[in-house]
Amino acid sequence: MSDLKEKIIQTSLELFDQQGFHGVTVNQIVQASNTSKGGFYHHFQSKDELLFVIHDTFITYVLKEAHAANVIHTSPIPKVQAIIQAFVQVFDLYKPHISVFYQESLYLKPAYEEKIKGKRDEFKRMIFHVIKEGQEEGYFRKELPVEITGMAILGMVNWIYKWYKREGSYTINQIAEVFTDLVLHFLLPGRVDEDYLNHMLKVPFFYESE
C-alpha cells in the first residue's frame, strides 16, 4: 500500500470516528491528509469505496491468518489456537478500522456489503470446519454442536470491541492467551459428571412457552 493511500485511510478513520461517515466530505479528507482530489481519486473511486477498504482491511487480515493456520498446522488444536490468536490481535492492530466498521457499516453500498459478507461468511465457515475436523479426529468434544460452538467463539471474540482499551490493565497478547485458553478448555474432552449431564439434558433449550 502506498504511503499516500495509507495516509488518506488513517485521516478518514479519524474524521469518520469524530463526525460520522455522512458528516465528512472528500474535500475535508483531502485537506486533512494534505493531498489533492487527484491524489484521492487515484486511490479511491469514491468515499463509498474508501469506507469499503476500511472494512475490508481487517477482515482480509484475519481471513489470511486463518488460511495460513490451516496450511501451517496439521492438527486442529494448533490450528484453532492460531486462528483465535490472530482474531483477538485484530482488535488491536485495526482498532480504528473496527470502530468505524461498527459505527458506519450501515452505510456500505450493497455491492460492497456483499463482498464483506462473503469474507465474513468464509471466516465463519473456517471456524466451523476446524471444530468439525477436531471432533472427527477425536481432539474436540463430539457432543458440542458445531454451529453453536462456532458462533459462541465468534460472539465472544467480537465482543472485545466493546471493552478493549490499549491503555487498559491487560495487553492484547495477554487477552489472546486467556481467550485461547478458554476456547481450548471447552473444546477439549474432559470427564463429565453423568448426573449433571443427565440433568442438563432435561433442561429446555432457551425458554419453553407456558
TrEMBL record:
Signal peptide: none annotated. Residues 25-44 bind DNA. Residues 2-62 form the HTH tetR-type domain. Keywords: DNA-binding, Repressor. The keyword GTP-binding does not apply. The keyword Cell wall biogenesis/degradation does not apply. GO terms for molecular function: DNA binding. This is TetR family transcriptional regulator. The lineage of its organism: Bacteria, Bacillati, Bacillota, Bacilli, Bacillales.
